Amino acid sequence: MTYNVDGVLPAELVAGFDDGTNLLLSGPAMSGKRDLLLELLARGERDGEGAVVVTSRDPAEEVVREYEDAVGSTPNFVRVIDCVSAQSGSATDGDGVRYVSSPGDLTGMGIEFSEVARSAGGQGVDRLRVGFDSLSPLLMYVDIQRLFRFLHVFTSQIQSQGWLGVFSVDPESHDDQTINTISQLFDGVMEVRVTDGGVREVRVRGVTSTPTPWVEVT
Prior knowledge:
By secondary structure, the chain is an alpha/beta fold. The protein is built from 6 helices and 11 strands. The chain has helices at about 35-40, 60-70, 85-90, 105-120, 145-160, 175-185, and strands at about 1-5, 15-20, 20-25, 50-55, 80, 95-100, 130-135, 165-170, 190-195, 200-205, 215. The chain has a 9-stranded mixed β-sheet, sandwiched between helices. The chain has a two-stranded antiparallel sheet with strand order 1-2. The longest helix is centred in the last third of the chain and has 18 residues, at about 145-160. The protein is globular and about 45 Å long. It comes from Halobacterium bonnevillei. InterPro entries: DUF7504, P-loop_NTPase. This is Recombinase RecA.
């Protein structure tokens, strides 16, 4: 089976992603990465799939609001793992939101993700799209070796369950070696850029037979 992305990505890029695929969504700040990530997750609503978002940048309420906007209706199943609100003191127990102490609490993220996955199964949701926004703040807290080990386990769980994972990163915030090390863990990379004319373009490599050209994405 595949996770459909029609309506989000042009057909000349890719029509869908195989079960168990993990993607690195790479692009600079202000390139619309999170919008694209949430749109990719929200596309699953039409197919009865659920969504999990790990946020290390913005509070859960903001992410949920943007996700609901992307869906355009009440979501079927969405859970958020919030890594920022506990630090700012704004964490409030809400339906479908779990909190970890900081973007450096990798153990907490792993535990909460396993709990969320279990709750999805308990509600009969066996297909999940998992979004991680973003890996870049984690590298302010932990070294690349720790992050690599964490991501190896996290992506393996997504792969073994046949889910879809999309992990965003800002390549301009890290050196090439760091990005290359992280990239090894993913089946493919989806790159985003904004042209001088303000047009958002995407290309995909690793999950297609050859890297795609840059294609405009609205």
